[in-house]
Sequence to fold (282 residues):
Amino acid sequence: MFDLMLRVLSTHLFLNQRLHPGLLELAERAGAQAVEIFAARQHFDYTSRDHVMELATWFRSNPLEPFSMHAPLFPDREMGRAGAPAVNVLHPDKARRIDAMDEIKRALESAEHIPLRHLVVHLGERTDMWSPRSIEYAMTALEHLGAFARPLGVKVLVENLMSEPTTPEHLVTILDLGHLDSVGVCLDLGHAHATVGLDEAVSTLSKRIVSTHVHDNHGVRDEHLWPGDGTIDWAKTAGMLQSLPALPATVLEISYSLNDEPASIPEKIKAGFEKLTGATAH
Fold:
């Protein structure tokens, strides 16, 4: 028998829509116990008190938990398509790093009203390189964000991406060198599958894993497919996660651009959770 992992739906699935109570209710009906709010201004406008309070009020009277927030990737409402620079805490330009930190803190301030438990952070962009400078910038950013998040009751989680500074091995180096014991890891299963492989990622990050981003791909591109639509061995992956020192949350993080029929989405969410949180192993 498998222990049941917390079932969390990332609102990334609805990124091209304004996040409203109806979408949260859909997540709950589909079997989610919690959500990860994706902080993109066109979706969740964390700069709008009205939007923050609308969601805070809903969470206060409903059992669905605001488990985590994904830090913003862009500071605008177009995900950078209009030319806004990415939120990059590893950028060589100090002004860009400061702007990135300010944007993440701006989003995290919503935890004053929405009782978030975790903040998932990207360290840089895909083209960033591994260097002593990137290690220094990463440690500084995580230390700073941790100090900001702690009084809000939020734990910072760093995510493995498809870049040099965020390989599992390099994340451990950053956390160890910075003595960042309070920072956890969100293991992105799709990113791991398309880079170092899930076996290596799970074994390297092991005790630090608090949460997982669950999505599928074919081992080459970051496709964010429904589990089972790519080449990840989900039964094996579920077994590896079950063997971790602490059972991580499973955050279903599916692309908003797959154009699924709206009527099919609840069943697909349920089936996605079942890949990792089903009661029996195969």
Remarks:
- The CA atoms of residues 128 and 163 lie 7 Å apart.
- The mean pLDDT is 95.
- The chain is about 35% helix and 15% strand.
